[in-house]
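Incident log, support desk, overnight shift.

02:14 A customer reports that sequence design results differ from what the structure should imply. Their input is reproduced verbatim below. On-call engineer (initials T.W.) acknowledged and began investigating.
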């Protein structure tokens, strides 16, 4: 099974409402991928609200995500707004360094991009 990382904003300056929005936004892409049987890793869901539940730093989570990304992910899905996230920009840069595919869906309903990911995942 090929796995894609879902990359997009999470912390957004620490505003709880923005964090919740970012989690739910990323979740929509995770659901769209799951509905097509495409493996994914979504850091937003993996450590949802841990900034309030645990005492680890934001840098710890970024490093954790990058380790999982490097060990387990074969591609990256960069969701709208990714350019505004330092973590997602690092994940995009890492994809270039690793030579793995990058996908840029316009929405969770972007059939053309989802079909492209699905076709790639089944190779």
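02:41 Re-run completed on a clean worker. Output:
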């Amino acid at each position: 099974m090929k796995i894609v990382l879902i990359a997009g904003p999470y912390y957004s300056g620490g505003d709880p409402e923005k964090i919740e929005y970012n989690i739910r936004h990323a979740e929509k892409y995770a659901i769209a991928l799951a509905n097509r049987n495409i493996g994914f890793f979504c850091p937003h869901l993996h450590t949802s609200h841990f900034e309030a539940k645990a005492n680890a730093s934001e840098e710890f989570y970024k490093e954790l995500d990058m380790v999982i990304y490097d060990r387990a992910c074969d591609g990256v899905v960069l969701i709208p707004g990714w350019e505004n996230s330092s973590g997602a920009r690092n994940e995009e840069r890492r994809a270039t360094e690793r030579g793995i595919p990058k996908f840029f869906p316009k929405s969770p309903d972007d059939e053309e991009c989802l079909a492209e990911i699905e076709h790639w995942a089944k190779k």
